[in-house]
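Q: what sequence does this backbone want?
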């Protein structure tokens, strides 16, 4: 039944990203957190006290069974996404799954098949898709402002001290630059050019075996190419450029957050666009989930499950080529 009441969220996991999501739900009228689940009561209580959440559960099973919860946000480490999403779906709850959607395409397919079989909404939490400035870029592309797309350049690099005990460098916890931050530029390229038909990758491993730095060259049937870089070895510009035959778009860094961009025509003066709206982006994806669920839509047209599966397949190919550890 279509209703305008705020969507009641259950947060599965109590880490940093769950906290950021809870903070931004306060900036929107579309939803509110009503429950949180953790692996311990102490952790659930501490998180719930911080974000004023009434229901606290000491297990994920109790969270998804909570009758007050209408939709579950899966905010656990990457290797748990598949099992946690399936747990929520089995309980009859729609899911928003933090990026990357799963560890590989096979896991992603399992979640997608379950959601579709049960007639439940599911979406990858790729917040960049729902930012106002990215909507402006999609509009310019649809209007043909850039002409034919020739190339895309996108990077995401952050210096992170190599610590074998850190989740970011742990094979068991889905560490590595590609899965953690490379998914942003890959998803951005996919939004514009779709699925690549040629993939060439080069990687430098960390001491733990996960990729510390990876560069990817993508080719497309249209003749367009894309270069994607991700790194834990240094702070990069975290910028993105879309180059067309008639104009280019230059996005300032970090391109995957609310940021200005400039439309530079082949002839004439550049036009600068400033981001609109409050928050870092989590609120925008929460609004989209609420819009879809309240209107009976099972997939967001801005982040379809088929595209999520395609992106996971691309990352599978990259990891197979560079032969780094990903468990």
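A:
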């Amino acid at each position: 039944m279509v209703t305008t009441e705020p969507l009641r969220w259950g947060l599965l996991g109590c880490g940093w990203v769950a906290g950021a999501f809870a903070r931004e739900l306060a900036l929107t009228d579309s939803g509110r957190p009503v429950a949180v689940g953790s692996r311990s009561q102490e952790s659930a209580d501490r998180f719930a006290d911080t974000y004023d959440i009434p229901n606290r559960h000491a297990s994920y099973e109790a969270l998804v069974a909570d009758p007050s919860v209408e939709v579950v946000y899966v905010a656990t480490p990457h290797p748990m996404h598949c099992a946690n999403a399936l747990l929520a779906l089995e309980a009859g709850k729609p899911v928003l799954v933090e990026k990357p959607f799963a560890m590989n395409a096979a896991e992603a397919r399992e979640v997608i098949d379950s959601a579709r079989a049960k007639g439940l909404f599911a979406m990858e939490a790729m917040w960049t898709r729902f930012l106002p400035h990215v909507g402006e870029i999609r509009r310019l592309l649809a209007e043909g402002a850039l002409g034919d797309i020739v190339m895309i350049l996108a990077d995401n690099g952050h210096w992170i001290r190599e610590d074998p005990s850190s989740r970011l460098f742990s094979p068991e916890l889905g560490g590595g630059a590609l899965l953690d931050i490379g998914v942003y530029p890959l998803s951005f390229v996919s939004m514009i050019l779709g699925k690549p038909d040629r993939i060439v990758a080069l990687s430098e491993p960390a001491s733990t075996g996960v990729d510390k730095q990876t560069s990817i060259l993508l080719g497309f049937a249209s003749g367009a190419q894309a270069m994607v870089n991700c790194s834990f070895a240094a702070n990069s510009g975290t910028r993105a450029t879309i180059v067309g035959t008639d104009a280019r778009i230059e996005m300032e860094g970090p391109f995957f957050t609310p940021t200005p961009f400039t439309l530079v025509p082949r002839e004439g003066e550049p036009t600068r666009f400033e981001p609109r709206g409050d928050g870092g982006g989590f609120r925008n994806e929460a609004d989209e989930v609420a819009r879809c669920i309240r209107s009976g839509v099972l997939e967001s047209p801005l982040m379809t499950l088929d595209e999520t599966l395609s992106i996971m397949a691309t990352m599978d190919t990259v990891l197979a080529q560079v032969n780094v550890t990903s468990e």
